[in-house]
């Protein structure tokens, strides 16, 4: 654990909650678990640059690569994009990508509304953590670049299986001592939403995806939490 200070419900598609109904969804929430890339941290431009560079190195179409990697652990995406690679070669490819990502932090900032949300969580003594599909090294680098200090982070290095498996979310809930059903997962990808739901958690979804609560930025979630209590 890094110390730092069915996709989209496939087959069971949910109806997004309207803003005025959000307090009902949040009433029993006792902890908030946030995805990192695209959720707590705006790293989209850096992620795209690194994957494009990686794609060129492996002779793969950049657009196809960039379009299909968000929300999945890098090794999972690499196996899908280059199925001819051996496991040793997958590890080498993932290491190349990691090196690119840890050195390209230009434009990595806290996501819109992140400061407001973290302030509300602090005011109300609501525990929170980061649950990311990135490894510990990259998580540490991007959170630092964004100026975010997390109580603790569950990274890809901490789990046997990454998202959409729920292991990371269940581990974070256990670390906080909060029942998974009382944790709110905040996500911006289909694999992440699936992971949160599989852990038995309500999900606040970004990027127009379907969650038990749909938000456009973290400031909206902060406002909803203020209304709850």
TrEMBL record:
Gene3D superfamilies, alphabetized: HAD superfamily/HAD-like, Putative phosphatase, domain 2
Keyword NAD recorded: no
Protein name: Hydrolase
Keywords: Hydrolase
NCBIfam families: HAD-SF-IA-v3
GO molecular function terms listed in the Swiss-Prot or TrEMBL record: sugar-phosphatase activity
